[in-house]
Specification:
Layout lengths: L3 H6 L5 E2 L5 E4 L2 E4 L3 H6 L2 H4 L9 E2 L4 E5 L5 E7 L2 E8 L3
Length: about 90
């Protein structure tokens, strides 16, 4: 398995998410299917995710995906696309 930072560096951003993953609430577009984020990531990056833990919405457009090593993968959305992916120790 390649290094996590190398896997992140190979991501070509932005990554458009399927329209079906979103809903409109209070005149705002909101992500209703967080698994769409996981499915949009490269296979080698998904290998680092802890599938036993829950994805957390940090803000309306930032999501924390738990990693197996207890850190988090922060994924930032803009409109209907992933625009940023980073590793954080805690939030």
């Amino acid at each position: 398995m390649e290094d996590l930072r190398i896997a992140i560096s190979k991501i070509k951003l932005p990554i458009e998410l399927p329209a079906a993953a979103f809903s409109i609430k209070d005149a705002q577009i909101r992500l209703s299917d967080m698994i769409a984020i996981v499915n949009a990531l490269r296979d080698n990056l998904r290998d680092y995710l802890d599938t036993e833990q829950t994805i957390t919405s940090v803000t309306d457009n930032i999501f924390a995906l738990p990693l197996k090593d207890t850190r988090y993968l922060f994924v930032k959305l803009q409109e209907c696309s992933i625009v940023s992916v980073d590793i954080v120790s805690r939030y």
